[in-house]
Design brief:
Layout lengths: L5 E4 L15 H14 L3 E5 L5 H13 L4 E7 L2 H11 L5 E8 L2 H7 L9 H20 L5 E6 L6 H14 L3 E6 L6 H15 L6 E6 L6 H10 L4 E4 L13 H10 L16 H12 L16 E2 L2 H9 L18 E2 L7 H10 L6 H17 L5 H9 L10 E11 L2 E11 L4 E8 L3 H13 L4 E9 L8 E9 L2 E9 L2 H36 L6
Parallel strand pairs: 1-2, 1-8, 2-3, 3-4, 4-5, 5-6, 6-7, 7-8, 9-10
Antiparallel strand pairs: 11-12, 12-13, 14-15, 15-16
Helix pairs in contact: 1-2, 1-10, 2-3, 5-6, 6-7, 7-8, 8-9, 15-16
The structure holds 3-methyl-2-oxobutanoic acid (KIV) and zinc ion (ZN).
3-methyl-2-oxobutanoic acid binds next to strand 5 and strand 6.
GO biological process, one term: L-leucine biosynthetic process
GO molecular function: 2-isopropylmalate synthase activity; acetyl-CoA C-acetyltransferase activity; manganese ion binding
Organism: Rhodothermus marinus (strain ATCC 43812 / DSM 4252 / R-10) (Rhodothermus obamensis)
């Protein structure tokens, strides 16, 4: 038995059959070139009889892509096989993959017509003949012929062995036994291969192949179980795309065989794993199917650590929580993602990496503010951290006014309304303001003016995003004027309305501080004047 696993990529055929995943010919070509860089052994490029576009895609891939064997699918029908052979003509190393259904359910549904026989036994005999004829015809075009018994996973194993025997005798070099409906469980699927191989006693050049669908989420597990039963080709797709729930994910199969090589007799797998993530992104872009963040191997979170204990662990020793190296699959190494579950260790080691040393006496305050921000934002980026450390802690204890509560309502058919509750810390009284405005910010500012009885003018308002992402922090800068003197307030928040209110109130607090300072100067000066008899007035 060979010690090498053939990786048969069917992203462009079964993968493209995923509802909504169709790709243009140019996209298919680009992906086929990438699959060649990834070093897959076989590319199933399409099903030429099914449409002119499929035919052309196979033809161009066969003509232009070098390295892997280029394969085309054909039902066990003469016209399909001729179309596949024609499309593959420009290729150097080509394979025809012909298939016919073998399970009773499929026979009943697809071969119901009496011309295939009246009884199940007669229909089964017809299928044996059609399989044999298809393989023989395919062999007249190429020495590399794959035969698939569709729905093998639900086929009577005795009949399955008969079909396989006929296909091998007709010249098939690869025998694929698909779990077409994703119905099998691993030990059952492996047992099917063992039993067929035991009954058929195939010659050594014949390779058995697994092709699994993911209807029960078992496609990868079933493929690996098949390998343990003697299979040496796995049919799979990038990101596991394919009919219904998809096929076995190539990246998962390959990394399982590599990371857990000892469980599979250290079989050789020729994939250049460093290209896995890039290939996954490319397929995702072409199909419009996003890669879930938690997708094994290629997902954005596959090598990210957020929980404090995990971050602490991987910073000490990567293998505490990583079973493979991120860079081996083309991902960024050591992704410490900062969020609400992160601990001090993760935060300060990231800050240190950014070259920011936080003095011991500020650490607690910085961590507390980090957690407050993490409650507002799903993920904290480096830019958030830089700002967090640069900013002065919390609010100004000298501030006269403090925003206690704010409600804003706006809609397509109503004027924006705002209500604010502001505490005057000097008198310990709560002031409420309510207003409508041209926009929500205008309504908030009018409500604040009402609550604090302000007599200033708004000179400018500026909003900009200071960090990335949909939940970015917005920074608002407000300038107000009071009798020719200007005061600036700046505030940041993930909620831009909140940042707008805070910035405005900060400017007002500065104005109040200025007034209080002037009053005390006047008061002191008046006292001095009094003691000198008012001489210098
Ligand atoms: O799932 C399946 O049975 C197939 C065959 C055509 C191999 O895709
Ligand atoms: Zn399939």
């Amino acid at each position: 038995m060979s010690d090498r696993i053939i990786i048969f990529d069917t992203t462009l055929r079964d993968g493209e059959q995923a509802p909504g995943a169709s790709m243009t010919i140019d996209e298919k070509l680009r992906i086929a070139h990438q699959l060649a860089r990834l070093n897959v052994d076989v590319i199933e490029a399409g099903f030429p009889i099914s449409s002119p576009a499929q035919f052309e895609a196979v033809q161009r891939i066969a003509a232009e892509v070098e390295g892997p064997v280029i394969c085309a699918l054909a039902r066990a029908r003469e016209e399909d096989i001729r179309a596949a052979a024609e499309a593959l003509k420009p290729g150097k190393r080509t394979r025809i993959h012909t298939f016919i259904a073998t399970s009773d359910i499929h026979i009943d549904a697809k071969f119901g017509d009496e011309r295939y026989g009246r009884t199940l036994a007669e229909k089964r005999r017809t299928i044996l003949r059609l399989a044999e004829e298809a393989v023989r015809l395919a062999r007249t075009f190429t020495d590399d012929v794959e035969f698939s018994a569709e729905d093998a996973g639900r086929t009577d194993v005795g009949y399955l062995a008969e079909v396989v025997q006929v296909a091998i005798e007709a010249g098939a070099t690869t025998i694929n036994l698909p779990d077409t409906t994703g119905y099998c469980v691993p030990d059952e699927y492996a047992a099917m291969f063992r039993e067929v191989i035991r009954r058929v006693q195939p010659p050594p050049h014949v390779i058995f192949s697994a092709h699994c669908h993911d209807d029960l989420g078992l496609a990868v597990a079933n493929s690996l179980a098949a390998v343990q039963a003697g299979v040496r080709q796995i049919e799979c797709t990038i990101n596991g795309i394919g009919e219904r729930a998809g096929n076995a994910a190539l990246e998962e199969v390959v990394m399982a065989l590599k990371v857990r090589g000892e469980r599979f007799g250290r079989l050789q797998v020729n994939i250049v794993t460093q290209h896995l993530t890039e290939t996954s992104r490319m397929v995702s872009m072409a199909t419009g199917f996003p890669v879930p963040p938690n997708k094994a191997i290629v997902g954005r979170n596959a090598f990210s650590h957020e929980a404090g204990i995990h971050q602490h662990g991987v910073l000490r020793r990567r293998d505490t929580y990583e079973i493979m190296r991120a860079e081996d699959v083309g991902q960024e190494p050591e992704q410490i993602r900062l969020g609400r579950h992160s601990g001090r260790h993760g935060l300060f080691s990231r800050l240190a990496k950014l070259g920011i040393e936080v003095p011991e006496e500020r650490k607690e305050e910085v961590y507390r503010r980090f957690l407050a921000l993490a409650d507002l934002k799903k993920e904290i980026y480096d830019e958030d951290l830089r700002r967090l450390v640069a900013e002065q802690p919390d609010e100004n204890p000298e501030a006269l006014y403090q925003l206690m509560e704010m409600h804003v309502a706006t809609g397509t058919h109503r004027a924006p309304e705002a209500e604010v509750q502001i505490l005057n810390r000097a008198t310990n009284t709560l002031h409420i303001g309510r207003a409508t405005g041209d926009g929500p910010v205008n309504a908030i500012y009018k409500a604040i003016d009402q609550a604090v009885g302000a007599a200033h003018e708004l000179v400018s308002y500026e909003l900009r995003s200071v960090t990335e992402g949909a939940d970015a922090v917005g920074e608002v800068t407000v300038v107000i004027d009071f009798n020719g003197t200007r005061f600036t307030g700046v505030a940041r928040h993930t909620d831009v309305l909140r940042a707008s209110a805070d910035a405005y109130l900060e400017a007002i607090n500065q104005l109040e501080q200025y007034r209080a300072d002037r009053e005390s100067v006047t008061f002191v000066r008046a006292g001095i004047m009094q003691s000198f008899g008012g001489a210098a007035a």
